[in-house]
Each structure stands twice: as C-alpha cells, then as structure tokens.
Amino acid sequence: MTAAVCLECGHMKTGAWKRCPGCRHLPKSLEDRARHLITTDHYLSHEKLEAVSQQIQAGQAPQFVDTQVQAVMQQLQSIENDPREIKRRRWLKLKVHLILLTLGGLIITAVWLWLSSR
Description:
Layout: E1 3-5, E2 12-14, H1 30-38, H2 46-57, H3 66-81, H4 83-116
Antiparallel strand pairs: 1-2
C-alpha cells in the first residue's frame, strides 16, 4: 500500500489520489495529482513524509521542485492519453454499468416477487 500525505491538511493516508479521511480533499487537477504522487513513499522516505505532514499541519506549504512537478505531470498526461489506457477505462466503465444494471434488475425482480406474493 502506498503511504501518502494530504497536501490540504497534512493527514497521512493510503493512496495519493484517494479522498483524505481527515479533510475529504480529493486531488483532481493534473498538477494536484502530480504533487500528491510526489508526496508518497514512492518518492520520499517515511521520515520525509512525516516531516511534510507536520509541516502542513503547522500551516506551512510544502516546497516542490517545479521541474519534478512538470516531469510527473507529463508522465501522467502521457499515460492518460495512451490508447491502451483509454480502452481500459472504457472497458472498466462498461463493466461497472453492467454490474449496476444487473443489481437493478435483481432488486426490481425481488420487489416484484415480494409484492406478487402478498
């Protein structure tokens, strides 16, 4: 599991792009996701992560190297534009829709059976 720091409140969390359990912040923009990815144990030691967490909780904004943020943003952008990634996201959406349709059908069937047995 990826240890990460919420850049809004300094809360330690699991996963760079997960909603923060402390302040509910969810990184959405490309730059915000890049900065949150940089503040994970993939880039920083646990000691550095703790220091960043304490710094944010003390009201100080963490300092980033602009070239590093830009490089991570470019990598994320290239991944998002990769045709295989686009296909994977479409397939995942289709699976979610099929599961939701199936669940909806099961609920409707159960309610219909329950009502017809009365």
